[in-house]
Design brief:
single chain, 284 residues, mainly beta, Lipocalin, ten-stranded antiparallel barrel, 2 helices, 5% helix, 63% strand
Length: 284
């Protein structure tokens, strides 16, 4: 029973809460201000899952990313929290053009970053993060074991470099972020083990595995530029998401390159009020 509960938890997708908006007030504590962004992207992906096929599949990827950043009260208000919800779907083809794979993955991460002010325009942030992931890959060629479920949880380290530029009386924010998982747990059938054996016959031996950098060397990188345009702030981004694993004699990798574009909202949480503001926790 414990293993079934763990498996279900791995596939849970967190609820994203929507906060109210209000106008700027410098007397309010910084913990009330939230930087929220939504980005949409398209790119290229390379898939390999030897449970389904020994061949690599390449093709197009569509990605959506929702991010919330706000300051906390920890360490005298020098720590921010960041939550990122992502979903990306791919349609790929093998090199011989004899088969296709369709995949979808959902992930949610939460990080705490300590702010180190290097210069008035440069900040370095660093801290821990955790991530929950779930999804699937479906191979159109396979009649036996045509799909592979994805579920894993990671804990690791996260860091950002934020640089503020002043161009023509406007403030542009450039950011580079890197997340590296260090330890986690992963659901994975053994090589050639069917899902019928796991869920119907109850053969759960070895399907929940401990992961670390030795069998899941992965990295997530994101580069963004916030550009104010009249009353709005446009965000341009690039995501490099490299995930690979070698668990239960099954080799997997997903190498994704996505170019993103979206909008940024800076809001303030005050009860019973709902007005726009322009202050960002990334600036302070």
């Amino acid at each position: 029973m414990r293993k079934e509960i763990i498996f279900l938890l791995l596939f849970c997708i967190p609820t994203i809460y929507i906060w109210g908006q209000t106008k700027e007030n410098d007397s309010l504590p910084s913990t009330r201000f939230v930087n929220r962004a939504s980005m949409y992207g398209i790119g290229y992906t390379n898939l390999l899952d030897t449970y389904l096929s020994p061949l690599e599949y390449t093709g197009i990827e569509m990605r959506f990313l929702r991010e919330n950043i706000r300051m906390t009260k920890m360490i005298h208000g020098n720590v921010s929290s960041q939550s990122i919800f992502q979903t990306h779907a791919t349609y790929t083809e093998n090199e011989a053009k004899t088969g296709n794979e369709i995949s979808a993955l959902f992930s949610w991460s939460y990080a705490l970053h300590y702010h180190m002010h290097i210069t008035p325009t440069l900040k370095i942030l660093a801290g821990p993060y955790g991530q929950i992931n779930g999804g699937f890959i479906y191979n159109t060629r396979n009649s036996n074991n045509p799909a592979q479920g994805k579920a894993y949880v990671n804990l690791g380290v996260s860091s950002m470099i934020i640089y503020r530029l002043h161009i023509y009386n406007k403030i542009l924010l450039a950011r580079y972020q890197i997340n590296i998982p260090l330890v986690g747990i992963m659901f994975s059938p053994e090589y050639q083990q069917s899902y019928y054996e796991i869920f119907t016959q109850g053969n759960w031996n070895h399907v929940i595995q401990i992961t670390s950098v030795h069998n899941q060397p992965s990295i997530f990188q994101m580069l963004t530029l916030d550009v104010p345009i009249k009353s709005a702030t446009l965000r341009f981004g690039y995501v490099l998401d490299l995930h690979q694993s070698n668990v239960n004699k099954i080799k997997c990798h997903t190498y994704s390159h996505s170019f993103m574009i979206g909008f940024v909202k800076n809001i303030c949480i005050i009860k019973n009020k709902d007005k726009e503001i322009s202050r960002s926790p990334l600036l302070y």
